[in-house]
Design a protein that fits this description.
It contains 27 helices and 30 strands. The chain is α+β, with helices and mostly antiparallel strands.
Length: 785
């Protein structure tokens, strides 16, 4: 090939979902070609792939495809990173990954030592690993191979460093007692050399990687500081004059290794929640097929298969119980301390533990599709996202190490100009280098985030990401939906008031209009009709009227069933039901449309309040939060519920769009609003609020529409969710404050000669450990009350 050919233009290969014809392909091509820097864009409809040539960023391409109405296919990779020691390290790994072609986002969690990479197109995992290695760190794909057991080796290295350093520091410890013993120089060198060259080699390797990337990190500071002390000792030893400082270099390395070991042990505890969830997944299930039961790997179970769950076993699949009755312990999934009675027709979730009965479960989801797998993914995602405050930390860390190196040089120069001996000036500079560790700064946020989201998950509270925590701590108003949120969500038909026809006829016609509906009130009507043995006639031309009711033709008659707004729309005025509405009942009227519209009767529904609803509202008000009830039910019934529970405000008769408008008005007035709903009917209101809290009992919709999902439909958990969010955010602030305060205090003391390198090393190690231990205090949290 001729040498003078220009290099190939950069290209990106992206999968596209949702295309159905050539018009779709053309639409995508036009959207992408319009991007600046795009030289060509070609869509292959058969393979559903887009090839882009030019300098457009992956994020711009993804946004263009989405704006065109299609979905770019992304891949997410999890990497295990080794060798990171501070915020500078995590920032460098993120930048190295983000520079790769096709990478949309890269997030590194220093506390968990993991990276999550989202990429467009067929990203090469090997390229991700290579990029991290090129940045000076180790990397493997999570789950690609068993992690090596390095705990024992690391503990032995720390023990060896401490044993070798102990004889060097012992004479200094004996001096206050009048004992003056000095080891020969050759013996000091023999003890310090393996610490510096062997046990401290990791600092040199990591420092070299930082220098190659034109940046700095903690390892560079340790390597510079200990090398200066060790080198000064070698020079003085060769000259035969001056003091030896081998103990300073050896003790600093030993203390830093000890601190990192303690930090690693503490950090591992922050990941206990995710490991506990993973441990809930059984490897096999007892499959019943053609009357034969066999233990079968989970990967071979399919939806529709029958799985037998014996007493005391963990349930391996999501499904519906077809035989048997028992009690199921869901404590590790939802935080519910009491076993849940379970019989035929009940739903069960993988990871729950069966009680003393035998159950047969028809599988609805298994493996990655199970609720447990979704919970694990959500918790894992929350623990690997980066809080907005970390952007400021990254900016500080990027310049911190160079500033410290300059400060150390100025310290040495300043002491020399003040007339100090060369040895003393170097030691003061070493103390500056050693004490200025950005580790605590980098650990403050991810350690608290992992501990807080982990303990919340153990109590049935799923927090989507770090940004959710930021919003939750500022909430000033909580808006509730009524049905299924403050009430049980299982309304029953409690009264029938016919007008000109028999009660059975009123129920029969109402059941006809509701036969195909899944609305809770519709199910109450059809259930009562079945109980009375009244088969509903067929309804035709049925149509739903959003927020008002339903209309259909039944036995040749145009019928309506809905709320007062539906009657008014057809020129009818309800004249009954005031007493029932005042008692908190939900009302619906059956009417006949046509030439002479008329009301045929009234149906009243009762839905019991949840036992903890009143206490939940009281606790929120005690915390200074404004409590509001917005509902589509009749205003009188909504007002009755609000009075019973002690809510600050209430409004009924609202359509879904009107709920969203009320929330937006509250936000415009300065309130920070949390909306609490069931995650399905309340999706618009959840999206309109600053924070959506879904009490969806773990439904798929709840998991994907809300910032916080409560796996138990318990209003009391709303206050608990806001409490753990506030506490986690407070721990983040505390960690960052002490990390900054430590350096703000330690650096001047070291520069003024008030700290020896050994004390500086101990303080540096203690700072990181203390930040992680402070975050771990969250693991003792329990929901208030």
């Amino acid at each position: 090939m001729p040498d003078n050919l220009p290099p190939p233009a950069p290209s990106l290969d992206v999968g596209i979902a949702g295309m159905t014809c050539a018009a779709c392909a053309g639409r995508v091509e036009r959207a992408v070609r319009a991007l600046p820097g795009v030289a060509a864009a070609s869509v292959n409809l058969a393979s559903e792939r887009l090839r882009v040539t030019g300098a457009a960023t992956p994020a711009a391409v993804a946004a263009a495809v989405t704006a065109a109405g299609y979905q770019p296919v992304t891949e997410t990779f999890a990497l295990v990173i080794t060798g990171m020691t501070c915020a500078s390290c995590s920032g460098r790994v993120e930048r190295a990954l983000a520079r790769l072609p096709g990478v949309l986002a890269a997030s590194v969690n220093l506390a968990a030592e993991t990276a999550r990479v989202t990429a467009l197109g067929p990203a090469d995992p090997a390229a991700l690993v290579a990029a991290v290695i090129a940045a000076g760190y180790g990397a493997t794909l999570a789950g690609s191979e068993p992690a090596p057991d390095t705990d024992r080796a690391e503990t032995l290295r720390v023990a060896a460093a401490c044993l070798l350093a102990a004889p060097l520091v012992l004479p200094m410890l004996l001096m206050p007692f009048g004992v003056h013993v000095m080891l020969p120089g050759w013996l000091q060198l023999a003890l310090a050399l393996p610490v510096q060259a062997w046990l401290g080699a990791r600092f040199y390797r990591a420092a070299w990687g930082a220098l190659r990337a034109a940046t700095g990190n903690m390892d560079l500071l340790v390597a510079l500081g200990t090398s200066a002390a060790f080198g000064l000792s070698l020079v003085n030893m060769a000259r035969g004059t001056g003091d030896l400082y081998f103990e300073a270099s050896a003790v600093v390395i030993a203390l830093v290794l000890l601190g990192k070991r303690m930090e690693a042990i503490a950090r591992r505890r922050t990941g206990d929640a995710i490991r506990a969830l993973v441990a809930l997944r059984p490897e096999t299930a007892r499959l019943r097929r053609d009357g034969v039961e066999t233990d079968t790997p989970i990967g071979m179970i399919q939806p529709g298969d029958l799985v037998v769950v014996r007493p005391g076993e963990a349930i391996a699949v999501d499904g519906i119980v077809t035989e048997g009755q028992s009690q199921v312990d869901e404590a590790l999934l939802t935080g519910e301390s009491l076993p849940v009675p379970t019989a035929a027709g009940a739903s069960v979730t993988a990871g729950a533990v069966n009680g003393d009965g035998l159950l047969v479960v028809r599988t609805t989801a298994v493996g990655a599709g199970s609720m447990l797998a979704q919970i694990i993914r959500l918790v894992d995602y929350a623990q690997t996202t980066r809080a907005p405050v970390e952007r400021q930390v990254d900016q500080v860390s990027a310049i911190f190490v160079p500033v410290v190196v300059v400060l150390a040089l100025l310290t040495a120069i300043g002491w020399l100009m003040a007339g100090a001996a060369w040895d003393a000036a170097v030691l003061h500079a070493v103390a500056v280098l050693v004490i200025a560790c950005p580790c605590a700064l980098g650990l403050a946020t991810p350690a608290a985030l992992m501990a807080g989201t982990g303990v919340a998950a153990r109590h049935g509270i799923l927090i989507r990401d770090a940004s959710t925590l930021e919003r939750a701590q500022t909430v000033t108003a909580v808006v509730f939906d009524k049905t299924g949120t403050l009430t049980e969500g299982h309304p029953a038909l409690v009264a029938l008031e016919p007008d000109g026809l028999p009660e059975a006829e009123l129920l029969r016609l109402a059941a006809a209009l509701q036969a195909g509906s899944l609305h809770p009130l519709a199910r109450a009507v059809t259930a009562e009709a079945r109980r009375r043995g009244l088969p509903p006639p067929a309804a035709t031309e049925a149509r739903a009227i959003p927020g008002q009711g339903v209309a259909a033709m039944v036995e040749g008659r145009p019928l309506l069933l809905g709320n007062a707004a539906l009657l008014v729309r057809h020129g009818l005025v309800p004249t009954t039901g005031e007493a029932l509405a005042a008692a908190g009942r939900s009302l619906a009227w059956l009417a006949e449309a046509g030439a002479t519209p008329r009301i045929l009767g009234l149906l009243a529904f009762g839905d019991a309040l949840r036992p903890t609803a009143a206490a939940a509202v009281a606790s929120l008000r005690a915390a200074g939060l404004r409590t509001v009830l917005l509902s589509g039910d009749q205003p009188a019934g909504v007002a009755a519920v609000a009075r019973t529970l002690g809510l600050d405000e209430a409004e009924g008769g609202l359509l879904p769009g009107e709920k969203s408008a009320r929330i937006q008005a509250m936000r415009a007035g300065g309130a920070v609003v949390a909306m609490v709903g069931d995650g399905i009917n309340d999706a618009p209101a959840l999206a309109a609020a600053d924070l959506g809290i879904a009490m969806g009992s773990g439904t798929d919709v709840a998991l994907h529409t809300a910032g916080i999902t409560l796996l138990r439909s318990d209003p009391a958990m709303v206050g608990a969710a806001l409490d753990i969010a506030r506490r986690t955010a407070a721990k983040i602030r505390q960690g960052l404050f002490w990390a900054f305060a430590y350096n703000a205090l330690g650096l001047p003391l070291a520069a003024l000669g008030l700290l020896s390198p050994m004390v500086a090393g101990a303080a540096m190690a203690a700072s990181s450990v203390s930040v992680v231990l402070n975050a771990l205090a969250l693991q003792r949290w329990k929901p208030p009350g």
